[in-house]
Structure formats: C-alpha cells, structure tokens
Design goal:
Length: 298
Amino acid sequence: MPIRELFHFMQLVADHDTIHDAYDRLLAPKDWGPKHWSDFDKRWATLGCVGPDFVLEIMEPSKDPADLGAPLPKFHHRHGDHLHSFSWYVDPDDMRPMIERLSGMGVNVLTPYVERDPDAPVETFFTHPKSTYGQLEFQSRPPSEGARDFHLRPDWTSDFWRDEFPLGLVRTSHLTLAVSDLEGAQDLYHKGFDAPSFHREETTDRVSSYCLVGDTVVEIAQPKSEESWIGQDVAAHGNIPHAMTFAVADLATAEKHAVAVGQAVAWRDDETIYLDPAGLANAVVGFTVRAIPGDPRG
C-alpha cells in the first residue's frame, strides 16, 4: 500500500491564535511546525502531533483583498471556518505511480510546487475536490531519522496523552468524510487508495462505510436527511471532511476534561460524545470508547 501515515488533518479558521489555544487546552498538540507564513499559499499555519497517529494543521488564510483569488482564502470566503482536507504521506518512489493511477481514474491531480520539469521529484500533490469528494493532499515521506514530524521519528512515544494528560487519549478512532454519494466515494477510496470497506452500518442520521487509509480509519458517511449536523454540512458545503473522533480510555474522564477546559458536550450516547462545534470554529470533535467492528488496526 503506497499510503503511509497521516500527514495532517487541516482546519481553516479566521482566527488562528484563538483556535490554537482552544485545541492546546483540549488536545495538547505538540507543535512540530510552529506558526509560519507561506506567501505561496497565502496563509498562516501550525502543525502539531496529538497521540500516536494524528496531526492537526490549523490554518488562517490571508484576509488581504488582493489574495482572495488564491485557493485557501477562496475556500474560507465560500465555507467560513471549517475542516478542510485530509493529507497523507506516501513513500517517495510511489509518488509518481500514485499520480498516474489517480489520473488514469479521471482524478484531476495538481502539483503547484513542481517546476516545469517532468522528471523532477514530486514532493507534494493535491487532488481537485470535485474529483475526490473533497480535496486530498499527498506528501513525500521523509526519512524517519531527524524528521520534523515528531510522530515519524523512531523514538516517538504517545504515552503522555494516554497516561499523563487528563483527556486519556489512546489514538485516533476515525476521521469522517461527509458525502452525497457513499457508493461513489467508497469506490474511489477502494480503487485509488487500496482502502476497501471493512465495516458498513446505518445509524439514525447516516449510512457509513469505514475503510483504512494508511494507518487512518476514514468513515465515509452519507446523511439520511438535511436535519442532522452531517446533513446540514453536506447541504451547505457539499462533499467535505466533517469530524474527528478520538478513542479514549474512559468516556467520563474525557468529558470531565473537555468541560473543564471550556467545551460543551452537544451529543452523546453510551459510548461516544461530541462537543459543540461552536467551541472549535465549527469542527466536530468527538471522543469514544467504541471499537469499530472489523477495525484492521486491532
């Protein structure tokens, strides 16, 4: 499988510092990409590891009227504060074959950082959101030794989040992609990313298919109506990342921590809670003790 670890889950916000502080209290990301400006992308951003397998990128696009035509400011102007995209590492030798595979499937692949040399190594490529049920990014995986991304390093440990931080976070349970066409999206993930469905289910508000992309479980979810959170999300924004859900050791302990740092619980059942999206710039963040049936990670 060419896809490796999660590179990051991106959220676009109007006020980076306020949301970074909120996540710092809730999840305690360990920043390996401190706040920095990209003039090419017209944005500020940080990247931080959470637990063994999650990286959050918080991004504030430029507000300069001259930059509103750039992709990230344009997205924020259209969608407001919202989760934006998934990104994964790919081994360097697999980058061009993966581009060829996706292009052969009709996916519009973008390589904005590559000079006009067809033989140059591809370090980063993106997909057009209309081609892949939301935009995706793939990054050439660096060597583990000395990697800027802490969770690629061989000596990385996530014990802090499980044993010391009061949240009691174990790992990422799953990331949710909200779509209007479940079968089409799952077919793309199966054929394009070697990620067949390992579990399907229907709940009160959605029909879901779970698949493993690299080391990340993605829930591809089609809402059953426009009345639920996920239904409203698809109605307003189209196919788009909808939520991040973390596995915790104890649900009551996780809830106590979330409330203590100023977040409110807006939905619950016996195994899972979701926080009020208003507290995290419209991001849906949940905690669960549920084991997804058939999860290949064990």
